[in-house]
């Protein structure tokens, strides 16, 4: 018995048999499976699947990297745009803040200006404590100076030893005609101690004669003088000596010019003696020259009883009942008015009970208290610069109102009230500040000392410079003989002249031995008297002198004589 055939339509739709020739499609119907011409092997399928997987993996990997790159670029662009925005916003904020800050500062500055103006107006309306503290400090500096032990620089002195050495060498190198002038007769010690009348009319000679005579006496000793011996001048020939003489004379003239330009007073100024400066300072501060008084008197400080109105008394001027001293000035600047005054205007240690009643004069307690608030003195070397500093400290505090000057706080006058002023007046200060300042009674002496001390300090500086020039000139003169010896010996033929000796510095015999016109005529027919009957010299006549001298080392052409006589002048020119 055969089995019934299987119905195809009754087979499950989900069944798919890959080995069958037919398949049931999910949507109905039956299709024949299409078979490939040749199916790949299982191994080839695995390779293909692996390659596809690797490709997909690589693709997705690269895609992911590209996506990350795009994301990074996007974020970068977003960040850049953000910062551009932020920067712009930040700049706008800063600018806004600057504008706000500037406006705020301008408001604060304007408020400060308004406040300052208000305070200034308030200050003008009333005097406050400490208003005259700077003025009091400047006045105290003068009080302390008056209490000091002072030393004053002395007038300058020159290096006399160097100058005397220079004059001595100059006299040693000089020729006989110059030396004759200092002798009365042939004796070695027969000198003109005072300048002869026929020479006294020559400008500058009377002032230099004493130094010349001293140098001539020293030169007459010759080699016995250590400086002359060491200089080597006595070892030079006549021609060498002439060159050295020109050199030393130039140095001596330069030294004398320094001395004449110095103008040191023969008698020191007594105003610059320390004791006299001390007296001048005590007079300016306390009105007394001997010492600081234990109790100040109105007659010393104000030059009177100071019973006038305070506004009249508190004026820096000569005459009675004026602020003639530093103490009087302190009273005007620091002592408060009894009714409407301000306390401690100059110093916080002032006694408030010491009032200046407008109807009466200040008391001794007023005058004694204020100087005690200043410091003590000390040892001080007084200089013009120090005095000038103290003077300028006072000058810098003077204020001008209308045509007058005022030292101290002033609103309208110096009556002492807190709405008037606590000050001293300097009348006419605006039009003549220098002369009015120097005329203040308690500054006048100090100004005089400052000027004289300035002049002395200039002389001290000039003397130091002159000292250096004179010392160098003396040292150069000591070496002149050696320099000339080298130059003359190495550059020209020598004359047949003997070295100089000490006898060259002795007075000449012959005509010069005569002391009167009669002796001169009897001496020789070739002599003549030069001068008056009482003062003069016996000298050879000009014609006789030239004939007796004659030519020196003259050859047939005369050219050698010219060379010998002119060579010292040429060498002297080269030395200078």
Automatic annotation (TrEMBL):
Gene Ontology CC entries for this record: plasma membrane; side of membrane
InterPro entries, alphabetized: Trypano_VSG_B_N_dom, VSG_C_dom_sf
Keyword Transmembrane helix: yes
Protein name: Variant surface glycoprotein
Pfam family, one: VSG_B
Bias type Basic and acidic residues, positions: 531-549
Biological function: VSG forms a coat on the surface of the parasite. The trypanosome evades the immune response of the host by expressing a series of antigenically distinct VSGs from an estimated 1000 VSG genes.
Localization annotation: Cell membrane
Keywords annotated in UniProt: Cell membrane, Glycoprotein, GPI-anchor, Lipoprotein, Membrane, Signal, Transmembrane, Transmembrane helix
Upper lineage: Eukaryota, Discoba, Euglenozoa, Kinetoplastea, Metakinetoplastina
Positions with biased composition (Polar residues): 491-504
Topological relation to the membrane, as annotated: Lipid-anchor; GPI-anchor
Domain Trypanosome variant surface glycoprotein B-type N-terminal intervals: 115-470
Organism of derivation: Trypanosoma brucei
Disordered: region residues: 490-517, 531-558
TM segment ranges: 46-62, 109-127
Entry keyword annotation includes Cell membrane: yes
